[in-house]
Design goal:
Blueprint: E1 16-22, E2 25-31, H1 43-51, E3 61-64, H2 70-79, E4 83-87, H3 90-102, E5 108-112, E6 123-128, H4 136-145, E7 150-161, H5 166-173, E8 177-185, E9 188-195
Parallel strand pairs: 3-4, 3-6, 4-5, 6-7
Antiparallel strand pairs: 1-2, 7-9, 8-9
Length: 196
Amino acid sequence: MSHYFENDQNLPSNLKKTTTTLFDQNYIFYTDNGIFAKRGLDYGSRLLLESLPYEELKGPILDVGCGYGVLGIVVNKKTNLEVDMIDVNRRALHLSKRNIKENKCSNINAFESNCYEKVTRKYQTIITNPPIRAGKKVVYEILLKAKDYLMNEGTLYLVIRKDQGAKSVISDLKNYYDVSIVNKSKGFFIIKAKTC
């Protein structure tokens, strides 16, 4: 069984072109096997994008576990802020770079990094739809280490489902951040965690 948080060189490719409409704008995203939400934009990511306070966002922005680039690309197009996108999955990164060009983005960069391993600077905003299937250890590394890569008064935005442990994640994040719930829908929580 191949997972979207691994690099499986033997997994056959099945490239698909999907179209997503957000904020009255059409986006084209190429997806493939071995990538999260390969059929198109998932509900959690859509809710996160629809819940972000774009007028308050500050750059630079980091999209952690970017997959084929939906979060970073939409945020970049909406704000014109500088965005970096990282993922451990090389196929996802290849698609991200293709989708950056397809959606005519500028001031955006995608590179390989296992969590924050290759991240060398700090950001005003970090966004993530964390890879729940990678396990709690990886998810918590993304969420708790974010504070080390955020500037003063930087903000982490994330989406997590109630049945994936949203309540305990919120409780644990409160030990490190000023936490608030931005939105809730169909069991998904959009969480804002600000550095104290």
